[in-house]
Specification:
Helices cover 41% and strands 14% of the residues. The protein is built from twelve helices and ten strands. It has one domain: TIM Barrel, CATH 3.20.20. The two termini are 25 Å apart. It is of the alpha/beta class and 338 residues long. It has an eight-stranded parallel beta barrel, surrounded by six helices. Helix 1 packs across helix 2. GO terms for molecular function: oxidoreductase activity, acting on paired donors, with incorporation or reduction of molecular oxygen.
Length: 338
């Protein structure tokens, strides 16, 4: 990794069962992460408790996080765009961005879960075409395009979000063509080198001389945890995650007998912080306009455990990569490129 590292965290808002406390815990992590100097915090959207994710509506939660924090960037990682009425999403994002003083990072994706598309009465096979038409319209709305013959436009305006839109997709050339940031996460059906290849393709396709390409590299990081321990909740959670992916056809082949091979396939980093830092240092190079986004929770991770993981990352792992807490870095406006 090179340049001045940006550091974020991703909370998938997992929980074995729903409780209103899961949202309060998610908000507490934003507060803690800001105090630790993290540059950004991201939350994932899951409909109908897919993968034990308990957050179908990320923007209201980020609005609450905006009122509890003052600096940390607030990201969606990701919103499933085919499920969203485009104009309503644009309005909600515009209001949230004002409440957050320009801190919203809008991450979008096409989705993959069959149960989610069935719940919305949509055809899973049409998700990419739906995504393409909606993200094009969203960009038009943020740019102030007219809504109708009467000349109505998005109000409040949200032109700054044109520079703070991100996409999670393997179709990286289209992301570059649209001028959006790229969210890269390990794919269990592809070798770890696939992330590096996707980043290189994205950078090669970038044609926006007025602003830089942007990468958000997501890595699962569990410092101090032994994911290979069969008695640990982390291993049980990972095995359940694999079973769920297999059930919906998103994990090729049967689980291997050697669990260590599954950890490598999922690119999960665990154990000694120094060892984790070394693995990250040998990963894709990240520049000053990119960021490393760590996921430190699985379904059974308690709030206290998640906080300890964030502390380990902020105090031992990220500094070994050249990161400094945001209090000594640039303002969030520089992170977001408004």
């Amino acid at each position: 990794m090179s340049g001045r590292l940006r550091l974020g965290f991703l909370n998938r808002v997992y929980s074995p069962a729903f409780s209103p406390q899961v949202y309060q815990d998610a908000l507490e992590l934003f507060v803690v992460a800001e105090e630790l100097g993290f540059d950004s915090g991201w939350v994932a959207q899951h409909h109908f408790a897919c993968e034990s994710g308990r957050l179908p509506s990320p923007l209201p939660l980020l609005a609450a996080a905006a009122q509890r924090t003052r600096r940390i960037a607030l990201g969606t990682g990701i919103i499933v765009l085919p499920h969203e009425p485009t104009l309503r999403l644009a309005e909600d994002a515009a209001v949230l961005d004002l409440l957050a003083s320009g801190r919203l990072q809008l991450g979008l994706g096409a989705g993959f879960d069959p149960q989610s598309f069935a719940g919305f009465g949509q055809d899973l096979e049409q998700r990419h075409s739906e995504y393409d038409s909606r993200i094009a319209r969203l960009a038009q709305l943020f740019a102030g395009a007219g809504l109708n013959a009467a000349g109505q436009v998005l109000a409040p305006a949200a032109s700054g979000l044109l520079q703070r839109t991100w996409e999670a997709t393997s179709r990286v050339e289209q992301v570059a063509e649209r001028g959006n940031g790229l969210i890269v996460a390990p794919n269990p059906n592809l070798p770890p080198s696939a992330s590096l290849a996707a980043i290189e393709r994205y950078r090669a396709a970038w044609r926006q001389p007025q602003r830089p390409a942007r990468i958000a590299l997501v890595r699962a990081v569990f410092p101090g945890s032994d994911a290979s321990d069969p008695d640990a909740s982390l291993q049980r959670d990972i095995r359940d995650y694999i079973a769920g992916k297999q059930h919906i056809g998103r994990y090729d082949g049967a689980a291997t007998e050697a669990f260590s091979a599954e950890l490598e396939r999922l690119d999960i980093l665990h154990g000694d912080p120094a060892g984790i830092a070394l693995r990250l240092a040998h990963g894709p190079a990240l520049g000053p306009d990119d960021q490393l986004v760590v996921q430190v929770q699985t379904r059974s991770t308690t709030l206290d455990e998640a906080i300890r993981h964030l502390q380990w990352v902020a105090r031992e792992i990220a500094p070994a990569l050249g990161w400094q807490p945001a209090s000594t870095q640039a303002s969030p406006q520089e992170l977001t490129h408004p």
